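Folded chain entry —
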Amino acid sequence: MPEQNPANEGARDSGEITLETRDLCIHFGGHVAVNQVSCRFRRDTLTAIVGPNGAGKTTYFNLISGQLKPSSGQVLLNGRDISNMRAADRAHAGIGRAFQLTNLFPYLTVRENVRLVLQARRRLGLDLLHVWSYHRDLIERADQVLEMVALSAKRDVHAAVLSHGDQRKLEVGMLIALDPEIYMFDEPTAGMSVDEVPVILDLIRALKKRSAKTILLVEHKMDVVRELADRIVVLHNGTLMADGQPDTVIALPIVQQAYLGLAPVEEAA
């Protein structure tokens, strides 16, 4: 099936296809929130999904990660139809999601949050009374992850009392601990201070460099998109409007109007 790709002349096409949506659609009553979106995502590629507020970006993410069930269409992971799979099962299958709003265990410590993800990934259950001395490797890995996200000094602090920026860093750390095949970041820098943003961006850069993963990023900051993205997908009113390399997509008149709110540039006579 061909990619729905109005601007794909320069789109990056190297790498194995790991994730695909085919004619994906969801409607709430008479409102179509995602309208027959077909898109393929490849290994070793970071795709930024952008669009104005209400474009359907987070809804599209929810359909991929399993928080919502499509009205029609399919989600495929490595060629396997997972459209009816629960969100938890998709996580075990390799789809990892960091949410726009933090999704933590607030009354557990920072280290315990990461440790539970490692425990679940190894399918040891979620029993906090498990004898952790038998799994020193998981404790060491948790500490490694906390060092990566600059939270080592706060490992014994309850997640509920962390600043918003530190909570976002912890959630990214939990996603790294999950080590999914597909990384999904939904506005990872939202609500963070200027000083905190570089930590998250450095983590995403590091993921791109050291692992052959598929990374999806919803982000409003175009400077971040330009720097990190190999490819941009633009949604507008739930419809895929453009798809290609960043400079090509951002320069399209329809994107300038719909996303950036700019008047199209008139060509010289």
User: Anything to note?
Assistant: Confidence is low (pLDDT under 50) at residues 1-12. The longest helix spans residues 164-178.
